[in-house]
Structures are given as C-alpha cells and as structure tokens.
Ergosterol biosynthetic protein 28
Amino acid sequence: MSALLTSLIPQAEGLLPKWLFLVGTISLLNSIQAYASLSATRRVYAGPAPPSSSSVPPNTLKDSGSPVTPLSARTFGTWTFITGIVRIYAAHRLNEPAWFEIAAWTFAVAWGHFVSEWLVFRSVRLNAGSAGPFGVATGSLVWMFLQRGYYLK
C-alpha cells in the first residue's frame, strides 16, 4: 500500500507538484460529495445574506437562501471532477508548458467564477463554506504565477 501511494505522489522537485496532487485529489472527493448531498455545496453557494431584522427563524433562512439545486450541485461536481483530473495530471507533468498553463487556468477559471458569484450574481457569501475554494484558487494561482520560471526552464 505504501509503495502504491508513493508511486502516485509526484516525485518532481518542490512543493507545487505535491500541492496540485493534493488539491486535485480533494477535488475528486469533493465531486463525490456534490453528487451525494447538497449540504456542502449549499455552504459555498449560500445565496445573498438574509436581512438583519427578519421575522423568519434563522434556521429557515440558512437553508432557503441557497440557490443550489440538485442539478446545479451535480454540474458543479462534474466541473470539479474535471479540474481534479487536470490538476493531478499536471502535478506529474509540471515542467511541460501546456500542462503547467492548463493547471493554472483551472485556478483562474475557479477564481473568476467565485468572484463573479460573490460580487455580481450574489450567490456566494464570504463565509466558512466559500473561504476554502476561494483561498485555494487565489493562493494556487499566485503560487503558480510566482513559480512559473522555476518549473518551465
């Protein structure tokens, strides 16, 4: 089991390939979750913040404000699965310009998506549910930009 796991993890220098492998693996697992339950996806796409003074009980607002439907969760799960596959492949081929760039684009698209859903469409609130995806997209994109010259010599 240990040898199998070691063979899956990228052996390239630096932490970025291992990070891409980790984030890709988490993406695959997150995809399964998106198909199995709406709860985690609803934490990311929580909808607009409820009014501060409301006669509706807070528990009702927490669930009713999310625009997530079973179809949108499965679509998000499929998109996340594809990006996970790309990131895992790129983790093993980070010295190849096309793989490096397509992996960076997965984070750029995710970042653009989350920012537009937050600022334009208002389906994402900055909360614990959105902090992970937004932080990973932002941090990974910056990291890849800063390390581009190192991996693409």
User: Anything to note?
Assistant: The chain has a mean pLDDT of 92. The CA atoms of residues 107 and 140 lie 7 Å apart. The two ends are 34 Å apart (CA to CA).
